[in-house]
């Protein structure tokens, strides 16, 4: 099982053009602006509109901070992103504004091109055999983890493992039983049904 190990601390942050935050791009599939999928972590410092991304399905997960209100101009979205590690999905073409609730927040983002890939994002807190997909990402949010991928690999907070090729499953377990631990599993499947 070939995979990439990624440490988010080693990824240089890129400032947003509106000055409201920073993005660390974890990985991307496809070419440039025509990407098929993209994983990133954003640090939001002030209220700001979200980028307009037609044809892209988005999923956002609060990692740290009190979170933000997400509201669309047309009233179709009015969501408090305040529960850590709870995925929230929305279409990228919706004009959306983010209002911070109590200071800066950081969030994990998954973007997929509609009709090419669809995503599934879930938080796991205990030992499990997790299903893989066409593209699979494990992102450690809290605690220390052990990942069985041919051999055992440690995974610390804000470290990730990425499989760009089909993966059947991967076994994970907290390294310190009884201690708080959380890992995000992202599965990308081909989206041929739309």
Note the beta-strand portion. over 45%
Mean pLDDT: 94
Helix proportion range: under 10%
- What's the N-to-C terminus distance? 30 Å
pLDDT < 50 runs, ≥5 residues: none
Class from helix and strand fractions: mainly beta
Shape: globular
Task: Profile the largest sheet.
Answer: 6 strands, antiparallel
The number of distinct helices, counting runs of at least 4 residues, comes to: 0
Q: How many beta-strand segments?
A: 19
Q: Mind telling me the C-alpha Rg?
A: 16 Å
Order of helices and strands: EEEEEEEEEEEEEEEEEEE
Spatial order of the strands forming the largest sheet? 2-3-4-11-6-9
Oligomer: single chain
Describe the structure.
There is one protein chain. This protein has 194 residues and is an all-beta fold. Helix content is 0%, strand content 60%. It contains no helices and 19 strands. The model has no long low-confidence stretch (mean pLDDT 94).
What's the topology here?
Blueprint: E1 4-7, E2 14-15, E3 21-31, E4 34-44, E5 48-49, E6 56-64, E7 68-72, E8 78-81, E9 88-91, E10 96-100, E11 105-113, E12 117-124, E13 128-131, E14 135-142, E15 145-149, E16 151-155, E17 159-163, E18 169-174, E19 182-190
Antiparallel strand pairs: 1-17, 2-3, 3-4, 4-11, 5-10, 6-9, 6-11, 7-8, 7-10, 12-19, 13-18, 14-17, 14-19, 15-16, 15-18
């Amino acid at each position: 099982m070939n995979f990439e190990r990624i440490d988010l601390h080693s990824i240089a942050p890129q400032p947003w053009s509106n000055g409201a935050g920073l993005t660390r791009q974890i990985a991307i599939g496809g070419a440039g602006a025509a990407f098929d999928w993209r994983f990133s972590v954003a640090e939001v410092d002030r209220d700001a509109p979200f980028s307009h991304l037609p044809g892209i399905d988005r999923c956002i997960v609060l990692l740290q901070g009190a979170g933000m209100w997400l509201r669309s101009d047309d009233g179709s979205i009015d969501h408090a992103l305040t529960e850590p590690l709870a995925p929230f999905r929305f279409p990228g073409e919706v004009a959306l504004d983010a209002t911070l609730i109590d200071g800066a927040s950081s969030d994990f983002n998954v973007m997929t091109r509609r009709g090419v890939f669809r995503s599934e994002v879930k938080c796991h807190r205990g030992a499990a055999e997790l299903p893989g997909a066409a593209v699979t990402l494990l992102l450690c949010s809290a605690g220390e983890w052990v990942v069985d991928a041919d051999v055992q690999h440690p995974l610390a907070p804000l470290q990730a493992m990425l499989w760009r090729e089909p993966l059947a499953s991967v076994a994970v377990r907290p390294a310190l039983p009884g201690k708080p631990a959380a890992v995000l599993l992202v599965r990308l499947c081909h989206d041929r049904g739309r």
